[in-house]
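Q: How would the C-alpha cells look for this protein?
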Amino acid sequence: MTWRPDHAVVHCSGARELDALQAAANAGAMVGSFHPLQMFASPAAALATLPGCTIAVEGTGELLDWLDGMARRLQCRPIRLPAGHRALYHASAYYVGPFLIALMQEAAVIWRALAVDERGTLDALATLLRGTVAAVMEGGLAAGMAGCVARGDVGTVARHVEALEAFNPKMAALYRTLALRTVPLALARGTLGAEAAERIRVVLAQ
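A: Here is the predicted structure in C-alpha cell form.
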C-alpha cells in the first residue's frame, strides 16, 4: 500500500499507540485510532449496548475531530488518552471485562457442586451483579461496597476461607487476594473499623 497525504488511516487497537501507523504518517497521511470500550464476543449484544459506550479516540490533524464526531453520532462518549498510556488503559478494561467473566466462572464451578447448571447460576447471580453495579454507580466504589468484610464479620470471612480451602485451595487463594483488596474500600466506607480490619487481614493471611 502506498500512502498519500490525502489518505486517513485509523486503527481500532486498544493497546497500540499511533506509531503502529508510522509508515502512513511518514508518507503524510493523517493517522488515528478509534477503540470502543466494549466486549465484542457477541456482535448482537455489543450493538445493543453500544449507545453510551466510551470510545478512546486519537488522531492527527482534522481526523481527530472527525473521529470525535463519529463517536458522538453513534451516541457514544469519546475520550482522549495521554500519549503512551494506551496499553495501561486497555489493561484496566480487563478487570471489568474478561476478568469479570473469569470470576463468574469461579462462582459457576462452586454452583455446579451445588447441582446448579451454568444457566441456573447466571440466572441466580445476574440480579446480584446488576445490584452491585447500581450501588457503585449511585454512590461510588467505597459506598457500593457491602458484604462480610465491609461489615467487619470476621467469623463469616473465616468460614468462607475454611469452606474454599476444603473445596479447592487455588480458589481459596484467589478469594484471599480479592478479599484483601476489599478491606481499604470497606475502611473508606466507614462500616469497617481498624481493629476488625486487622483481624480480617490475619484470617486471610493464615
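The chain has a mean pLDDT of 96.

Residues 118-139 form the longest helix (22 residues).

Upvote if useful.
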